[in-house]
Amino acid sequence: MKRKKWLLALVPMALLAPLASLVYQATGGASCARCHAIRPAFDLWRASTHRNQDCSACHGGLFTLDVNFHLGNLRRLVRHWQDQHVEPRLAQASLERLVENCARCHREEYAAWQSGPHSVTYARIFLDKEHNRKRALMDDCLRCHGMHFEGSIQDLVEPLDAKGPWRLKRPELANEPVLPCVACHQVHRQGEPLRRPWIERAVLGPQQPLAKPSLALFDRRQLRPVSVRLLPVPEMREGLRRVRMSPDPRQGLCYQCHAPLANMQVGSGDDRTPIGVHEGISCLACHERHTQNTRASCSHCHPRMSNCGLDVEKMDTTFRDPSSRHNIHFVKCADCHPKGVPPRRRPASFAD
Question: What are the two backbone dihedrals, phi and then psi, of residue 275, each rounded to the nearest 5 degrees?
Answer without folding.
Answer: -135, -175
